[in-house]
Amino acid sequence: CCHISMAVRLIPAIPLGDALYLTALPPEGPRGSLAPEALWGLNASRQEQRLLGWLKEQAPAASCHLKCLQILKGLRDLRRHGLEEPFCSQWGRVLSSYVLKTALFSLLLQGPLEAWDEQFLVERLEDLVLYLRDCLRKQVLMDFFLGNSSIPEAVALPRFLKEAAPVNLLSAFDGPTLDLVAFQLISTWIQAPHIIRMYSSPRYWRPAPAP
């Protein structure tokens, strides 16, 4: 008779209300842009889904914002193969998926959303890369959901989240590291036109997963 074993990883979480949770961070392994001394992270998945739902209603039917995010993640992962440690790990930590989503959400709210029609995919992707580069150079990218007064009311954030102290997602990294990531990001973008064309083609495109 066959025996099936399954490993289950339990992650402690503290509910904050309205589907918000503080989740325990692993003692080892990737921690994204969080400071090394951080023990808990904020899970705001429900709020992200509300924001994406609002964007779907407000943006053009053929909006390219999720495609931009997926392509940027692909460029990040592709560039990682040519990097050596320890910078390879720093590259992935600085440009974590949460940082990329935060940059995208922040840029989207600067409007107009009509400019995100799919016909402007390359232009909007370049805007996102340049916006992220500027954030890296300034060493500032604020968490989107903490203390952000520009979030649409339709997203319905709890009051304590709106009134929370803003958090800089890049504060855990030193200036030289962020400058080097900014340089490599632009270098990757300049060398990637063939990748952009491939990802933009319906022949190669797959439905974009939720960020």
UniProtKB/TrEMBL annotation:
Residue ranges crossing the lipid bilayer per the database entry: none
Domain Mab-21-like HhH/H2TH-like: 64-148
Keywords: Membrane, Signal, Transmembrane, Transmembrane helix
Pfam families in the cross-refs: Mab-21_C (PF20266)
Membrane topology label: Single-pass type I membrane protein
Record-linked InterPro entries: ITPRIP-like (IPR026250), Mab-21_HhH/H2TH-like (IPR046906), MAB21L/cGLR (IPR024810)
Compartment annotation: Membrane
Main location: membrane
One cellular component (GO) term of this entry: membrane
Protein family (similarity comment): Belongs to the ITPRIP family.
Record-given protein name: IPIL2 protein
Organism whose genome encodes this protein: Motacilla alba (White wagtail)
Gene: Itpripl2
